[in-house]
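2024-03-11 09:14:02 INFO worker-7 job=invfold-0412 stage=load source=structure_tokens
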């Protein structure tokens, strides 16, 4: 499975770095997973919510992955960068709608679900996000489920920021089996939570 993690100005660091480590660890243990960090606006460095600067592996859309991971960050601060700013700008929701229509799976973490929702992709579908933003998700037409990971087939969502670890472990289990996912969880000393 080829997985691209989307980077935009103001993304939450843990939404990206935690899942990246889990997925890369699974790859290193033999899972048929490739993972890349890709910039929504190209391959230039991207600054995260708390100042971490990341050099993407490439630009989103340079290759056709099987799955895009959509992080959150910055929704509640209403600042010039982050998930809310991406929704207001409209570029990323439009790309998500296009990519999903082309058969690419989507997985969101925290308020990344609101970017997916702004693309019109969660109407009538089961999804979750950070607990403070469940009403925003419902207003976008989603069937809100309060949980760590919600699998609605071709769109998977995770709750608040640490739920990204559970999402990544879920993807590992889905792709390479429970034994490998449990091994990765043990290696990073993380107790899996699904509820």
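2024-03-11 09:14:09 INFO worker-7 stage=emit residues=195
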């Amino acid at each position: 499975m080829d997985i691209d993690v989307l980077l935009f100005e103001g993304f939450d660091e843990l939404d990206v770095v935690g899942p990246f480590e889990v997925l890369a660890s699974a790859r290193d243990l033999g899972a048929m997973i490739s993972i890349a960090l890709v910039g929504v606006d190209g391959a230039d460095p991207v600054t995260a919510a708390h100042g971490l600067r990341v050099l993407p592996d490439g630009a989103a859309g340079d290759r056709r992955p099987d799955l895009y991971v959509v992080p959150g960050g910055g929704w509640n601060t209403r600042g010039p960068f982050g998930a809310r700013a991406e929704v207001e700008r409209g570029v990323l929701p439009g790309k998500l709608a296009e990519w999903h229509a082309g058969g690419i799976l989507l997985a969101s973490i925290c308020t990344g679900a609101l970017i997916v929702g702004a693309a019109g992709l969660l109407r009538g579908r089961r999804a979750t996000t950070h607990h403070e933003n469940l009403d925003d998700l419902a207003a976008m037409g989603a069937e809100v489920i309060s949980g760590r990971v919600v699998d609605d087939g071709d769109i998977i969502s995770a709750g608040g920021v640490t739920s990204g670890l559970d999402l990544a472990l879920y993807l590992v289990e889905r792709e390479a089996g429970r034994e490998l996912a449990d091994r990765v969880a043990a290696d990073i000393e993380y107790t899996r939570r699904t509820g």
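2024-03-11 09:14:09 INFO worker-7 stage=report msg="The chain has seven helices and eleven strands."
2024-03-11 09:14:10 INFO worker-7 job finished
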